[in-house]
Amino acid sequence: MSARRDPFASLALAYLLLPSLVFFLTWLRPCIGLPAAAVALAAWSQFWRKDVSVEPRPRLTPGNWIFVLTLAGLWTLLAGIGGFLPQASDHEKHNLVFHDLLAQTWPVYYVHGAESNYLCYGMGFYLPPALAARWLGANWLPALTFLWAFAGVALFFYWVATFSRSPRKTLAIFLVFATTETLWHMFLHVLHGPRLGERGLAITDSLVRLGVGSDYSDSWMSLQYRPQHVISAWLGAALFYDLFWRRRSARGAGLVWAACLFWSPLMCLGLLLVPLTGWKRWRGQGLIEPVNGGAAIALAVLAVYYQGHVGLSEAGPIWKFSSGGNWLVLAPVFLVLQLSPMLFIYLADRKYDLLGELRPLFQGSFLLLLLLPLYKIGYYGDLRLQAGTTALLFAALAASRIFQHADFSWKRPWFALLLASQLVGAAYPFGKWWKDCLSGQAVDYSYAAIHERWGYQNLSDFKRYGYDYASQYLGRTNSPAASWLLRRPSD
């Protein structure tokens, strides 16, 4: 079979890499930023010129294209991106970031008396629409943010639709796949019930301290709360799968990983699942070639940038945050109530041999989802929430493989349990969508509203519920990044 050009990989990599180019050219000193941008652009150009695949991707009919693009637009709109529909509480942070990117010079510095910090965060989601809004005017930001996110979601939905010969079914099953979130939130609701009183609140506080106070989210809620992490995880995992599993080559993988690193460092740890589970399939010599060599420059620059991050107190093994060893009880309860669909997929595949080449990826995903809660980074367990996205993606694709298999029958026990867990898991996100969008109980998280409500001037003021959230987004001005990498405030 002859090789032919596959435009998805080049387009997805260009999408992921664009924010890094903006960062190199606008935040870094020209003597560093210009060469770094030139090398990264040359590496992408080299990737594009040799972007061919011997395994053809299924072609979509016009009807399937309309289906993919319509769902991508609907998912992006329902997630509240751009603010055209109600937004989740995490947009409090997103809107503060956008405000600071529009209101201040780049790079963004925060000064509080004698102390100062710089904005140190995964900026891939924010920089392109913010840069365009600085040129066109702040009123364009909602539309630009929506279009930027829609482009990434549409690229990924196209990849899911071409993952099998049944584009619509595969994409639909992926979108409704969820862990048993409903059971977890019923459990949390019981803890807040009147009979438990203060004891229930104490248990809930323990869950937050352990980093399992929130769930492994479904695709819509992940996009609703964490678009900056999820879009890059989706596209990064798709690219890694195409490189390591379809093409059996590491060529260009370093550039993909470097591009994703600027979106979400913790998410990039989850991406390593793909090459690690497929280590027998790909050739290691592909790691040493010009495209990955160019990526090394970007990785070095970003490593210095992130090295300046302020220290986080919320980091360590789960037992570090346990009182009286309660993690031995609460963590297993969390895992059982959340990951039962993965258990049923595993048992169904073990009995009927359904997953084929997806089996190592699924088993690695299941194992990763079991292990991630044991180490906490971030107040709500950001390591689990971000690094688990890739594993959830392949768990959903495994579910789509089983539901579409010729041997599937709801009358067989493991299939029936998997189907039931799907229905139970999907109930919570659909119910939450109804509450957020149609019940009239939505909260305004625009900058103007949160400034009036909480008095925030910028992201460095983001402190609430007794926790300094701002520390998760700030870098030290006495770090090498601020000393010689970033432009000075006066530049």
Set down the secondary structure blueprint.
Elements: E1 4-5, H1 7-26, H2 30-49, E2 52-53, H3 62-78, H4 91-103, E3 109-112, E4 115-119, H5 127-136, H6 141-161, H7 167-176, H8 181-191, H9 198-210, H10 219-225, H11 227-246, H12 253-261, H13 265-271, H14 273-277, H15 290-307, E5 315-317, H16 327-352, H17 359-371, E6 375-377, H18 382-403, H19 413-438, H20 447-454, E7 474-476, H21 480-485
Antiparallel strand pairs: 1-2, 3-4, 4-7, 5-6
Helix pairs in contact: 1-2, 1-6, 1-11, 1-12, 2-15, 3-6, 5-6, 6-11, 7-18, 8-19, 10-11, 11-12, 11-13, 11-18, 12-15, 13-18, 16-17, 16-18, 16-19, 17-18
Low-confidence stretches: none
Q: How many domains, in number, for the residues?
A: 2
Helix content percent band: 55-70%
> Taking strands numbered 1, 2, ... along the chain, how are they ordered across the largest sheet?
3-4-7
Mean pLDDT: 88
- Give the overall shape: globular
List the total number of helices: 21
User: Would you list the SSEs in sequence order as H and E?
Assistant: EHHEHHEEHHHHHHHHHHHEHHEHHHEH
C-alpha end-to-end distance: 55 Å
Q: Give the C-alpha Rg.
A: 22 Å
> Given the helix and strand composition, which structural class is it?
mainly alpha
Strand content: under 5%
Record field, number of beta strands: 7
